[in-house]
Specification:
Elements lengths: L2 H14 L10 H17 L3 H18 L22 H15 L19 H10 L14 H16 L7 H7 L5 H15 L4
Length: about 200
């Protein structure tokens, strides 16, 4: 090589900071590619390290709680103290409310939301306790189930604006053991309408 050719190569090499004998591109071209590879490597963890990290986290949690391996953890118990009543306690509260409104009425013994309501007398007593002038309760006969249901449902609709959620015919078909959910649902509706008159 001539002296002028070597000089121009060294000037070009010094401008690009590249060894004149290497054929690699200038560092500015390499940097974005290397950065991208490094970023991908840093964001991609091997599966084993993820599993190990979770295991370490759980072990640390156990240590922080003072629980070692082999110890039995106490079972969690659901608390009733948060003001949320269970379905059975709601039914019991509603049944107690019905009992309190029908005290002193003959032919009434409210024990459940099925057979206790099967002759219509409990419905009549409940409506009568709020609207005593609407009908004469003492004239009612437990044997006349159909008339009792019709009277109670009609008076509840007329006096308390409580829709019929149970039809008289349905109560007659169900006999002496009506569906407790049907009765409960209607009594709950009665409660919501009648309590405005308390």
């Amino acid at each position: 090589m001539t002296g002028s050719t070597q000089a121009s190569e060294s000037v070009t090499a010094s401008q690009n900071n590249v060894d004149p004998k290497s054929h690699s591109p200038p560092p500015t071209a390499q940097r974005p590619v290397e950065k991208r590879r490094e970023l991908v490597r840093s964001q991609t963890l091997p599966r084993s390290s993820g599993t190990q990290a979770r295991k370490a986290l759980f072990e640390k949690f156990d240590q922080d709680r003072g629980k070692g391996k082999g110890e039995i953890r106490p079972k969690l118990k659901r608390s009733q103290s948060f003001g949320v009543a269970s379905a059975s306690s709601i039914k019991q509260i509603l049944l107690e409310w019905c009992r309190s409104k029908t005290i002193g009425y003959k032919h009434i013994d409210l024990q459940n939301f099925s057979s206790s309501w099967s002759d219509g007398m409990a419905f009549c007593a409940l409506v009568h306790s709020f609207f005593p002038e609407a009908f004469d309760y003492n004239e009612l006969d437990p044997a006349k189930r159909k008339e009792n249901f019709e009277l109670a449902f009609t008076m509840a609709e007329k006096m308390a604006n409580c829709d019929r959620l149970i039809e008289v015919e349905d109560m007659m078909v169900m006999g002496r053991k009506p569906d407790p959910m049907c009765v409960f649902t209607y009594v709950q509706s009665l409660y919501n309408h009648l309590r405005r008159f308390e």
